[in-house]
Amino acid sequence: MQNRISSFPPFIDSSSEILILGSIPGVKSLEKQQYYAHPQNKFWKIIFELFNEEFTDDYAERVDILKRNHIAIWDVIDSCERKGSLDSEIRNEEANKIGELLEEYPNIKAIFCNGAKSYKNLQKILGKNFRIPVHLLPSTSPLHTISFEKKIEDWKVILNFL
């Protein structure tokens, strides 16, 4: 039996309009207790690029940029067993209560899934014809090997909803 890991609480407030969902934090993120903490994960670089912000490693500033731009982040998986950080190694997963979160925060007008695992899981949780648009974005993980430029181009769709 592998160790059970758990996701973090969501970063969300009443001004959030966009919800970005990952699968569940990787090893480095769990160690640091920060979303997208692996230095090769492009999530923060993409966010900074989208909003023309100067890049920083300061986690509080990173979270502040999300808040200022009305972006919430969370994961579709509440807890699971996983060896390492690969989504393909996830076993015995329990879903986060995404539907309840959306009821509690009715300002969310679009959901963006950071990679295929979060997208597939979200469809299981909410169904395919959900009332809020759901978009699959290329994973920011270093394992998803399309170019940074291509990832940025695809992630720009978020700007259409703000």
Give an overview in words.
The chain is α/β, with parallel strands linked by helices and 162 residues long. It is built from six helices and seven strands. The protein has helices at 27-32, 43-50, 59-68, 98-104, 116-126, 148-155, and strands at residues 4-6, 18-22, 71-75, 77-81, 91-95, 110-114, 134-137. The strands form two sheets. It has a four-stranded parallel sheet, with helices on both faces. A three-stranded antiparallel sheet has the order 1-4-5, covered by helices on one side. β6 (110-114), α5 (116-126) and β7 (134-137) form a beta-alpha-beta unit. The termini are far apart. The mean pLDDT is 93.
Give the topology.
Elements: E1 4-6, E2 18-22, H1 27-32, H2 43-50, H3 59-68, E3 71-75, E4 77-81, E5 91-95, H4 98-104, E6 110-114, H5 116-126, E7 134-137, H6 148-155
Which properties best describe this structure?
single chain, 162 residues, alpha/beta, three-stranded antiparallel beta sheet
Give the SSE order as H and E letters.
Answer: EEHHHEEEHEHEH
What gross morphology would you assign?
Answer: globular
Rg, Å, rounded:
15 Å
Largest sheet: 4 strands, parallel
How many angstroms separate the termini?
44 Å
Beta-strand content bin: 15-25%
Uncertain stretches: none
Number of strands: 7
The largest sheet has its strands arranged as 3-2-6-7
Summarize the structure.
The protein is 31% helix and 20% strand. It is α/β, with parallel strands linked by helices and 162 residues long.
